[in-house]
Specification:
The protein is α+β, with helices and mostly antiparallel strands. It has helices at residues 7-30, 37-51, 124-143, 150-163, 265-273, 276-284, and strands at residues 54-55, 74-78, 81-83, 97-106, 109-118, 167-168, 174-176, 183-187, 208-211, 214-216, 222-224, 231-233, 239-241, 244-249, 252-255. It starts with 6 loop residues before the first helix and ends with a helix.
Length: 285
């Protein structure tokens, strides 16, 4: 069941979104040849701990009984890894790409976002993959202004990716988000069988979605590695992933995981000061 959010609840989700945005800025400052994903993950773990924010990914239970929980605060997906890559000690190299996905709960509300980074100079075709994936996310945001149902947006996203010569991953989809990271509805980046039926939903004020196109250079097919989490492209070609938490308001869609506006900068300063009164004021905002 889809749970629509009030303006006040969306404002509180914006706070969590600002934390996620800042986490991605910290990660971007640390990325480069020679850096390790484990070190970047540790830095974000420390940042979240300082704020008293709860990482959404760390110890997230596996859907299969007996499999290990996810061990980190970020998914670090390098080159052919599509999603759910586990941070490790392998140094990043010039020409790599790295998708970082992370999320937090703060004040009872969640934020979630992903970015694919180029490590130094990358192949032009790989850069085009990143641009198209980010373009698919931008297209979805733009269409939230004009379309009535998600199926219409998903169809345009998949067509956009295909027209640029890439493929949309169909094994993983976006999701509703609020007090929990994963809420209804499922938000595919293509017109799934379920979306053709009862799983389609209206675009209406109060809807908050984590929209996250995952796009492969070659086949859309994936396979699971032995660690029970890491999903890689079946043909070993690169994959890119971009995500924002986006709210639909009466005035149109709003990204909740982007940089603070001028009006929000003072709130962000309070947040970075990690003062209890500041946090209380922010959570009440």
């Amino acid at each position: 069941m889809i749970q629509l959010k009030s303006d006040r609840e969306i404002a509180k989700m914006r706070l969590a979104g600002l934390v996620v945005w800042r986490a991605h800025q910290i990660a971007a400052e640390l990325i480069g040849p020679g850096a390790t994903t484990r070190a970047i993950d540790a830095a974000l773990d420390n940042y979240f701990a300082q704020l008293g924010a709860t990482p959404l990914f760390k110890n997230y239970p596996h859907h299969e009984k007996g499999k290990p929980a996810f061990p980190a605060v970020t998914c670090m997906s390098r080159n052919e890894v599509v999603v759910h890559g586990i941070p490790d000690d392998r140094p990043l190299e010039e020409g790599d790409i790295l998708s970082i996905d992370t999320g937090v709960r703060l004040g009872g509300w969640c934020g979630d976002a992903a970015v694919t980074h180029a490590i130094g100079k990358i192949d032009p075709e790989v850069q085009r993959l990143l641009d198209v994936t980010q373009g698919a996310l931008q297209l979805a945001f733009d269409l939230l202004h004009t379309k009535d149902r998600w199926s219409q947006i998903a169809a345009e996203m998949a067509r956009y990716v295909k027209d640029h010569g890439f493929s949309t991953v169909e094994d993983f989809v976006g999701h509703g988000i609020g007090r929990k990271m994963h809420e209804d509805p499922q938000v595919p980046n293509f017109v799934s069988r379920s979306l053709r039926g009862r799983a389609d939903f209206f675009i209406e004020p109060g809807l908050v979605l984590a929209i996250e196109p995952m796009v492969n250079m070659g086949t859309p097919k994936v396979r699971l590695l032995r660690d029970a989490w890491t999903q890689v492209t079946k043909d070993g070609q690169p994959s890119a992933h971009f995500e924002h938490t986006i709210a639909v308001t009466r005035d149109g869609p709003v990204r909740l995981t982007v940089a603070p506006s001028k009006e929000e900068e003072a709130l962000m300063e309070d947040l970075m000061a990690v003062s209890s009164p500041g946090l209380e004021r922010l959570i009440e905002w």
